[in-house]
Amino acid sequence: MSNKVIVLGEVRDGALRNVSFEAIAAAKKVAGDGEIVGVLIGDDVQGSAPEMIAYGADRVVTVEHPHLKHYTSDGFGQAFMAVYEQEQPEVIVFGHTAQGKDLSPKIAAKLQSGLVSDVTEIEGEGDDAVFIRPIYSGKAFEKVKINEGPVFFTIRPNNIQAAEKDGSRSGDVSSVTADIQNLRSVVKEVVTKATDGVDMSEAKVIVAGGRGVKGPEGFEPLKELANLLGGAIGASRGACDADYCDYSLQIGQTGKVVTPDLYIAAGISGAIQHLAGMSNSKVIVAINKDPEANIFKVADYGIVGDLFEVVPMMIEEIKNTKVNA
């Protein structure tokens, strides 16, 4: 049994996102003895091809065009279809990122295929692979097996372990020419808010604050704790609505869905909309003054106390541990 798999790598600011390597690992589960082909789309992406090979791709196909400098579903859709028509794979894998969530249904519609989105685990291998994905805002999981047509799925970041990087691997890097035209939208400029630290969607550690931080200044100790742990800062919708922080930090049903190794919730009550975005974190630590707070129902460890007393104690202890290590 062998399936050719094509994996769309995602480049941001000239570097591949970690989910690209996790997608390659997922591809290995369904490829059997088949070939794994990385795909890179952009205006200057050839330099990222060796890294995809180092993480397990057998070869890489690039599509470069001036109109692909910034992501648009029209442009990237045309580029990806050019690769698909050349390679004719049995399996397609994307990351379940903002880009992947936008592009994958467009491609599935063009191929008239099914799409299994937001996969967190794969049971079995090859043609017997069963895809597990959360439903009902994470309250349940469903198992999906694809019986016919192309196998097309997206994987949630931070759930499938990437392989170790092997710099000794080598593979062919080729290019496909695509005539990118008739774009209904063109991105003229991208203005991003300056953020310090780790990308929240790929962070291994997240420290999140809720209304209990009482104001923008209440996030300062949380940021210090996140920096000490090499993590990212997040927030509940309540904190964002109260103007304590920017909405780009919002975690939950109407914000980002994250699955870090460690999630520290400080001053977050645990509304169901927030739990939908973080309840699948591997370890959850909750800090709240209210012993009846809903967040404790999903927490692995709970601390009943004032976050302004608990967090500084945690910071001090971590600093002492690092000094003595």
From TrEMBL:
Any coiled-coil regions, as ranges: none
Database matches in PROSITE patterns: ETF_ALPHA
InterPro entries: DHS-like_NAD/FAD-binding_dom, ETF_a/b_N, ETF_a/FixB, ETF_alpha_N, ETF_asu_C, ETF_asu_C_CS, Rossmann-like_a/b/a_fold
Keywords: Electron transport, FAD, Flavoprotein, Transport
GO biological process, one term: fatty acid beta-oxidation using acyl-CoA dehydrogenase
Keyword match Plastid: no
GO MF, any single term: flavin adenine dinucleotide binding
Family matches, as SMART domains: ETF
Key word Flavoprotein present: yes
Cofactor(s) needed: FAD
Details of cofactor binding: Binds 1 FAD per dimer.
Annotated FAD binding sites: 211, 236-237, 250-254, 267-274, 288
Domain Electron transfer flavoprotein alpha/beta-subunit N-terminal intervals: 5-189
Family of the protein in this entry: Belongs to the ETF alpha-subunit/FixB family.
PANTHER family hit by this protein: ELECTRON TRANSFER FLAVOPROTEIN ALPHA (PTHR43153), ELECTRON TRANSFER FLAVOPROTEIN SUBUNIT ALPHA, MITOCHONDRIAL (PTHR43153:SF1)
Protein name in UniProt: Electron transfer flavoprotein alpha subunit apoprotein
Organism: Edaphobacillus lindanitolerans
